[in-house]
UniProtKB/TrEMBL annotation:
UniProt cross-references to InterPro entries, sorted A to Z: AB_hydrolase_fold, BD-FAE-like_dom, GDXG_lipolytic_enzyme
Gene3D superfamilies, alphabetized: alpha/beta hydrolase
Keywords: Hydrolase, Signal
Domain named BD-FAE-like: residues: 46-243
Protein name (Swiss-Prot/TrEMBL): Alpha/beta hydrolase
Superkingdom of the organism of origin: Bacteria
GO molecular function: hydrolase activity
Signal sequence range: 1-19
Length: 282
């Protein structure tokens, strides 16, 4: 009987000691979530890729915004870049979003619907930061119309989402100037912005990224092909001038022999350049 009592006391001592030890935390596994709704609209969805071992202190997010002239395209535009993201941006989570597309036939979803969708998507991600273990700032990346939306949010709404830097490929930057480029461009913009630069100047100004650049704007890297016949190279030249005038950290790369949308073998070097720029400008 005495032996049994001694055994119970010994076991109780062992368990009481072990309970004081902190639990061993298992690193979080990689997680991919697709078609996550950030609003009630059928286009208000995003895909998000969460890295293994993420934590609330050191897991920044890259958000990709697709192109398509504000009237077409989808978050799947990001898929060709997905496989290399973990190598170029180790420790980052990354997401790709859809947004409400403007309907030329009906006039549904005029601007700034798309601008507001970007805000909604970022606010949703912020609301999920604890559940997804995200923290460390936001890098916005976009191409063409997506580049426009990325730049616009970065300069106009940088306080929403803790934006740290922005990467843009062949972006529209000054819509009043872009309006004069061609008749198809003028038609699209007059429908999207419900008027011309003369009839609706405030919206053109408010919707142009360069209108919102200040000396405190976030570091910016952008790329533009010298053969672009959709968004002229001059749009990026205007962006460079505005960034220079305000003393903003930036890098601008003209891509020789490329039009609107680069060839697949062009992107790796440019994304490597962007990754280094982001690393150098945390």
């Amino acid at each position: 009987m005495a032996k049994k009592l001694l055994l119970f006391i010994l076991l109780g001592f062992i368990f009481s000691c072990s309970s004081d030890e902190p639990p061993v935390e298992t690193p979080l596994p990689e997680l991919e979530l697709t078609n996550v709704s950030y609003g009630t609209g059928d286009k208000q969805q995003l895909d998000i890729y969460l890295p293994a071992g993420r934590n609330l202190a050191e897991t920044p997010l890259i958000l990709y915004i697709h192109g398509g002239g504000w009237i077409e395209g989808s978050k799947d535009e990001f898929l060709p870049f997905k496989s290399g993201m973990g190598i170029l941006f180790p420790g980052y989570a990354y997401a790709s979003m859809n947004y409400s597309l403007f309907n030329l036939a009906t006039g549904d979803n005029p601007f700034p619907t798309q601008e507001n969708d970007v805000i909604s998507a970022i606010e949703f991600v912020e609301s999920m930061s604890s559940e997804w273990d995200l923290e460390g700032g936001l890098v916005l990346v976009g191409a063409s119309a997506g580049g426009h939306l990325a730049l616009l949010h970065a300069y106009k709404h940088a306080d929403i989402g803790n934006v740290k830097s922005v990467v843009a490929f062949f972006p529209p930057t000054e819509l009043s100037e872009l309006f004069t480029y061609s008749d198809p461009t003028a038609y699209l913009l007059s429908e999207l912005l419900e008027g011309t630069p003369q009839s609706n100047p405030d919206l053109y100004n408010e919707s142009s990224p360069i209108s919102h650049i200040t000396p405190s704007s976030v570091p910016t890297i952008f790329f533009h092909g010298d053969l672009d016949n959709v968004v002229p190279l001059s749009q990026s030249s205007l962006l460079e001038e505005a960034l220079q005038d305000n003393g903003v950290t930036y890098q601008f790369q003209v891509v020789p022999g490329q039009g609107h949308g680069f060839t697949a073998d062009t992107y790796p070097a440019l994304l490597t350049m962007a990754a280094q720029f982001i690393k150098d400008n945390p």
